[in-house]
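Exercise 7b. Backbone tokens:
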């Protein structure tokens, strides 16, 4: 079950065995402000906290699924920001 808002999160916490916590793509646009806000570092933490609060003592039995949209391996700390910036630049599409 994918929990997109508080109502679905509550249902997922109560009924599901696996809950997906991913970007908000309701608009169909991965570049929307909703999608961006749902990918901030605090968003998954808030959703997991909400699940934990609603699931109670059975939280440890819940499997959480998420999409990892960017992984970069480097030998230098300075290489990561540059690689992330290159990967996140929007490129115009041609038709």
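Sequence design result:
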């Amino acid at each position: 079950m994918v929990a997109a808002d508080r109502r679905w999160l509550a249902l997922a916490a109560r009924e599901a065995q696996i809950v997906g916590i991913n970007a908000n793509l309701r608009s169909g646009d991965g570049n929307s402000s909703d999608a961006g806000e749902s990918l901030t570092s605090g968003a998954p933490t808030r959703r997991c906290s909400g699940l934990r609060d609603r699931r109670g003592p059975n939280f440890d039995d819940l499997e959480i699924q998420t999409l990892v949209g960017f992984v970069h391996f480097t030998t230098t700390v300075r290489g990561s920001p540059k690689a992330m910036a290159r990967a996140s630049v929007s490129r115009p599409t041609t038709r």
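Instructor comment: The first strand starts at residue 18 and ends at 20. The chain has four helices and two strands.
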